[in-house]
Amino acid sequence: MPPRWGSVGGRFRLRQGFHPWRPAPGNKPWPSPPPHIREPPIDLADLLHTALHDRDLRRSQAAARALGDQPADELAAHLSAFAAALRDTGPLTPRRAAQVLAVLGPAAVAAVPALVETLASRRWALREAVVQALGRVGAHSSEARAALVRCATCDPNALVREAAALALSNLAEAQAGVARFDLLGALRHSFPRVRCRALRALALPGQFAPDLLPLFIAALTDGDLKVRRTAAEVLGPLGAAALSAIPALLRRRHDREVRVQMAAEAALAQLQPCLPPALQAWLRRFAQPGEIASASLQRALLADDLPGPLRSAFLEVCDRRVRWHHRLATGDRPVSGPSPATTGEAASAAKAAAEAHTAPRQGAERAGAAACEQEAAWLTAWLWAELARFDAIEKAP
Which helix (H) or strand (E) segment is 86 a member of? Predict the structure, then answer.
């Protein structure tokens, strides 16, 4: 057989026509072992020691995978060793124990109490490994679900909270419903940060459900700016499932906090491709970056393609808004004066009524101007909702 390598130009190169992945001529495959030779039995104790204490990460991972292939009844006798390893004071052994338990999955459900106890550790890397293990081991354990919800909302480390939220989203549908119920309680927590974390956990694919959308819309009007911003940030990636939140996001575009405005604009940009072409054009009119609410509303009212029925409905709603503002400002005294004849005059009257209602209470002209813009934002959101409903009616068979 010719040699594989040859000297060409002073360098050793592979000879042409030789394919190293093909067997050489005359070579025979390896013979199979005789039938009387059996593989040696697997020593679980040795595998466990290698998985927990070996300094070579590759050997440790291979031992963990080998443990995962063993029957559950044989592993049950060795689970107490994992509890002892989780309580170890060394920097490596407790995290390795949590990772091996994650590989074992539901077969290690007896180790859930030890995992939950380890969440009290001050080391965030260990807590992260523990919540990942709880997501795979304790899918059917109420104790594990409660611990994951607590970590997703209250853990001081962001990586641990993210790992716990992902573990909750990977639960089965029945268990995810129970965890969702626990997260709903966190939405009513007194701390804004906990409410923000609950919103992020509920917006994950495994936890989100269409009946939760009203809660996200309600969070857009929360008194804390972090909650409003978080609600806007999580609504954008939801796509077509969050289209009914566009009116509330249009109002948040004119929030008093700039960070909430930016989050609402980003969410609207993410939701725009999910709309029909006609509504996409209307949303571009309503959501021009950096534009005040009055200018957006004025452009929409001057559009030639605004349906006639919506113009008359807009006049009626503006009249009701004027009466409502006057009733709040002056009691039950009726409003005097002729009704506006055009949509522009009606919008101006509603904004003037809102400004007159707010300025005496606040005692500042700036508050009155802000109330005027908030009224324009409310009318913009109402007009969008009616346009979406009108478009749906026209397309109905």
Answer: helix 79-86
